[in-house]
Amino acid sequence: MKALLSIPVFRRFTGAWTIDNLADSALFLTLSIWVKDISGSSGAAGMVFLVLGLPIVLSPLTGALADRHPRRRLLILANTAAAGCALLLLLVTEPGDLWLIYAVAFCYGLLGILNGAAQSGILRDMLTDEHLDSANGLLSTIDQGLRIFTPLLGAALYTLWGGGALAVGVAAALLLTAALLLTVSAQESAPEPASERGGVLQENSAGFRHLGTIPLLWRMVVVTAIALGVIGLFNSALFELIEKGLGRDRDSLGS
Questions:
Q1: What angle separates helix 42-53 from helix 98-126, to the nearest 10 degrees?
Q2: If you ran DSSP here, which 8-state letter would residue 209 be given?
Q3: What are the TM regions of this chain, as residue ranges (predicted)?
Q4: Measuring CA to CA, which residue among 1, 6, 22, 10 is closest to residue 171?
Q5: Which residue did the predictor score with more confidence, 176 or 148?
Q6: 82 band by pLDDT with thresholds 50, 70 and 90
Q7: String of b and e for 139-167 (b: at least 16 CB within 10 Å)?
Q8: CB neighbourhood size of 191 (10 A)
Q9: End-to-end CA distance of the chain, in Å?
Q10: CA 164, CA 185: separation in Å to the nearest integer?
Q11: Letter string b/e over residues 114-133, b meaning 16 or more CB atoms within 10 A of that residue's CB
Q12: Distances 198 to 64, 114, 203 between C-alpha atoms, Å
């Protein structure tokens, strides 16, 4: 790990990744609290998590996009666009604006998937094979570690100063991420020639075809999908548990 962090370009990338994940974690849970606050509906609040995760079905397309274009540029553009999406939350003032929160959540989820695809590609260009495992482990640790306390930060911003403060804070963090990525200089590999990629359908279905050739891997994917689906039910149930089961108001989710 020490050798990995001695690489200047990776240190700068890690700093950008940390700030980006700080913004992500602060936003995710707080959007659902915001919806619950406006609508009073736990189902509507739970829909935020569905909308955030829905773009995962487009991951083959975002992966193909990351394969065809410079990854650092994609990361910068994705974070800048996500900052713009976050600022749209300033327009949310009444229950009729819930659609805007859902739209922002969907765009944010989609841009996050694009970020993940581009990040995986740029790491391979930035580091040697011997450092890839450690690098991915470190970035995953940062991602999961921030999820412990940053939702509390997002909820605190919302509770103390409202959704506008959350929108501005997240947007500022994302723009800072984009600025730091401008300092990351990596020699990126050239995109695979179109003649070697095959057609769009063939390329985007390659992962599913690969799963079909390994029954054990396919069963693991199906079981994991079912498990995550069941766990997702708790996202909506949590609001009812806090508010009715424990007799606390919805702001207690962030405290």
A1: 30
A2: H
A3: 42-62, 74-93, 99-118, 155-182, 216-242
A4: 22
A5: 176
A6: very high
A7: beebbeebeeebbbbbbbbbbeeebbbbb
A8: 13
A9: 34
A10: 34
A11: bbbbbbebbbeebbeeebee
A12: 12, 21, 6
Nearest to 65 by CA among 175, 210, 204, 181: 204
Angle between the N-to-C axes of helices 71-87 and 98-126, in degrees from 0 to 180, rounded to the nearest 10: 160
Question: What's the distance, CA 153 to chain centroid?
Answer: 17
At 1, the pLDDT band (50, 70, 90 cuts) reads: low
Q: How far is CA 119 from CA 20, 71, 183, in A?
A: 12, 7, 15
The structural domains of the chain, ordered by start, are 8-184+199-254 (1.20.1250.20)
- pLDDT at residue 81 above 90? yes
Residue 243's CB is within 10 A of a number of other CB atoms, namely 17
Take residue 235 and report the two structure tokens written for it.
Answer: 């996202």
Cβ atoms 166, 27 nearer than 8 A: yes
The C-alpha atoms of residue 143 and residue 28 are separated, in whole angstroms, by: 13
Query: What is the full DSSP assignment across 62-114?
Result: HHHHHHHS-HHHHHHHHHHHHHHHHHGGGG--SGGGHHHHHHHHHHHHHHHHH
